[in-house]
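Hi Y.,

Following your request, here is the sequence exactly as I used it, all 614 residues.
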Amino acid sequence: MRFYLTFFVLFAFIAGTFSQVENPFFSTSNVQFNSDVAEVGAYKNTKNNSIILVSGRPWGIVKRVDSQEQYFLNYFEVDRTNQKVGGFQKASNSKFNEGALCFTPDGSRVFFTRNAKKVNASSKKRELMLFTASVSKSGKWKNITPCNINNAKYSIGHPAVSPDGQHLVFASDMPGGQGGTDLYMSNIESNGTLSSPVNLGSKINTSGNEMFPWYNAENQLFFASNGLQGLGGYDLFVTEIREGKEPFSPMNLQAPINSSSDDIAISYHEDMKGFFSSNRTNKNDDIYGFTQLRPIVFKVVMSGTVTNANTSDTLKEAELSIINAKGELVATVVTDAKGFYSVNLEPDQKYTVEVKKTEHKEESFQLNTDFNTPKVKQNVQLEGRPNISYEGKVTDTKTGEGLFNVKITMKDLSTGQVVLIGQTDSSGNFTKRFENLTYGKAQRFEIKLEKKDYAPKTTEFSFEPKISGDVSINSLTDLSIGKVEVGVDLSKIMDLGDIYFDYGRYDIRQDASVQLDKIVSIMNEYPAMVIELGSHTDCRGAKDANKKLSDNRAKASADYIKSRISNPTRISGVGYGEAKLKVNCPCEGKVVSNCPEEEHAKNRRTEFIVKKVK
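Below is the corresponding structure, written out as tokens. Let me know if you'd prefer a different format.
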């Protein structure tokens, strides 16, 4: 532990430049009252506005260290007008080291540090002790007495009085701390005595050394530490302690007030100005002036990652808008390439955070920042909302060429709404775009294709959108249409599907009537059209029975159509049984077919062959 001669008098010089930061909190300046020995503190004398300087320049008793004469640290007075250094009150300096001091806000009492008169038999050194004295109107220190919390077994020093005069923070290596020297707090009683010290805890204290505390007018506590992460050696930090709350995580004051060397003993003399000590230039510590350039405001750091709720992929360029309780937008942050964001917020505030990204469902959440929780982890999941462009190309069934000016009617089967009425372009293409779709929720559509001289066709398709992009309808359903001409099978070019009958029966079922109505429609569109309706079976079953059954089904289907068209003689029904197998799957007599069911199904068909168009 380097208290006084063993602690802060002769800091080791650490060579190297110190980093610069954008928008620094402080600017620094040189002063004229440094000497070639150590200056380790400059404190405002509240009575006459002079500077009380802690310095190792010649004064009083000489001690010898390594055969070199070196003076104890003592108090000196610096005239602010001419920067000249003179002796301070004789009673304030003892035979040993003096150190950091502070006055109560009204200036009526001073707390200060000095060595004990006796050497600690265990540590073989003179421990630090806190002293207090009353201060007269003329500035004289009277009734100098040791503070009641001193202990001969360890050091206590470096006092700092809170702006309200109720608390004293100091440094000590008393047992039970975090390690090294820690910062403690005591209440200042009305008679000047101090209550039992309370350790300021692990947010401030480390296994290293924390010392030289100081309060500014905003009740922010500054101190030096070599245990917290800094720029090198001892750095200056600031924290804030609010009633009933833990200290805020210390903030490094950064360059230029911190350097790669040791920076200690900060003290404010005005609201935004003061002094600190550093060995950044010389072997010994010198005093430097500082000016605070902007307020130090403690923030709650909210950070996290924005991901896709459906895939868990991280989302870059997601935007978070932070709105305060007044409805004011206070910050906007965008996630990086890994989906990470971080934003500084005021403590003890209520915020609404809105999160959005293109092609994703917007989310929002409420956040109450807590002074006791300076770091908040808030991950966000956004449900994918894909944008889909359905692209189709209508072609001629026979030639495969794209067809111009085909009327497209597209209906959403889940809602019954028609979502597109349009025509194909010169290449037969058409497009329908949907935005902000529900991830993975299947869309089901019916598309009706109509063109003069072509059989109308109605087909369906479905798709589950999971990522944005272009979707080919042709990969999902057949968009070809056939020309109405002699010899074509309307059931094929109109994609009618099977005409179903109950087993062994030939009466028209409801689902069969739906398909037959499509033939009715086209025959009414072409009043001269003549059709032969042919019903076919597979080879299974008796040949005669198949012929009779198919004939009955053909005639029943034809009769259904005849009753709904003009000039009923334009359609006839013929049952072919198994006489015209489309797929060679014979199974008569002793022949056993090894065809799969799919092949038999191709033979069981109803054909509507066009015999005449005009």
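Residues 1-20 have pLDDT under 50 and may be disordered.

Thanks again,
Q.
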